Amino acid sequence: MRVRWIVVGAVVIALLAAYWVRLGPQTVSMLTHRKGGPTTTWEVSPFTPTNTPQLRIAAVGDVGEGEEEEWQTAWAIHHLAGDDPYDVLLLLGDNVYPNGDPARLDHTVFRPFEIVLNDGTGLDAIVGNHDAGYADQQMEILGMEGRWWAQHLPGDVLLIGLDGNTPDDPGQRVFLEQTLADATERWRIVAVHEPPYSAGYQGSDLAVRAAFVPLFERYGVQLVLSGHEHDYQRSNPINGITYVISGAGGRTRGTGEDTFTAVSWSVLHFTDVNVYHDHVLVRAIDQDGRGFDEVTIPYAG
User: Fold this and answer.
1) Greater confidence, 276 or 35?
2) Is 172 within 8 Å of 183 (Cβ atoms)?
3) The whole model's pTM is what?
4) What is the CATH number of the domain that holds 174?
5) For position 5, what pLDDT does the model report?
6) Is the pLDDT of residue 21 over 70?
């Protein structure tokens, strides 16, 4: 009997260990698959003429299936834009499942989001882990200058896109530091697919955190947008930076909480980023066009 219980105990320990495994730079916490959809949503009112943002970004990640759910997300973006189209549609990686084949971009990006892009909204994109094999080809077709890039946008905004698949690439590190060191913009927003801080299924990407976050903090980045997790997460400010995960443009997965978590929900959505002179308003919007999270990031100088 004692031998049997020893065996059972060993099996239990092995199973628990399997719930916390490390795959390369990513910590996967199987114990965090518990949160469902938001308990409260609200109607999102249009901006008044006297309260119009200087820049509007619709950010959405992990849309690479091209199925009905993604089309519904695109319609939600179009509906919320109303008579004031977004300046930028920002794709947060995993633009094509399963392997990033650029031949499928028409199916997964251009046709589903045609209704948004036809409004005059510009398209920006970064690569995800599923895009890595065709990263350069994807970025060229999507109109980006490379796997990492920077744009100087209205509203005194510097928007930087990074390749989280290669955080240790010395050329990318030099690019990021030089771009941030030279920046004169009031607002500095970064997009990287793999999240530096996550309480979801795949967890925080520790390699991305080690490579990029010290530079974010040194040079005053205020907002970091990621995908990868098929959920919505927003951190409490971490050394002055708010981290938002918006990876449920086409599918969802359970999420969880950590010490840095402000909000986490498993719900199809996009993230509505609105830049003003003295603050940035970030809102999470579900497929019915209803808000379920909202935060204001004040300019700290």
Assistant:
1) 276
2) no
3) 0.90
4) 3.60.21.10
5) 46
6) no
Task: Give the DSSP letter of residue 83.
Answer: T
Q: Is the pLDDT of residue 41 over 50?
A: yes
Q: Can the peptide bond before residue 98 be classed as cis, meaning omega within 30 degrees of 0?
A: yes
Q: Where are the beta strands (DSSP E) in 174-268?
A: 187-191, 223-226, 232-235, 242-246, 261-265
- The answer as to whether 74 is a domain residue is yes
* Average pLDDT, integer, range 5-26: 40
Asked if residue 207 belongs to a domain, the reply is yes
158 contacts 187 by C-beta, under 8 angstroms: yes
Total number of domains constituting the chain = 1
Strand 242-246 and strand 232-235: the pairing is antiparallel
Give the separation between CA 289 and CA 270, rounded to whole angstroms. Answer: 9
**Domain membership flag for residue 6:** no
Residue 216 CA to residue 240 CA, distance in Å, equals 10
| For range 215-232, the mean pLDDT | 98
In this predicted structure, the answer to whether residue 105 has a pLDDT above a threshold of 90 is yes
Q: Range of 118's domain? A: 55-298
Question: To 5 degrees, how large is the angle CA 24–CA 25–CA 29?
Answer: 90
Whether 15 is in a domain gets the answer no
d(CA 267, CA 248): 7
CA separation (Å) from 136 to 69, 86, 145, 148?
27, 26, 9, 10
Question: Which H or E element spans position 18?
Answer: helix 2-18
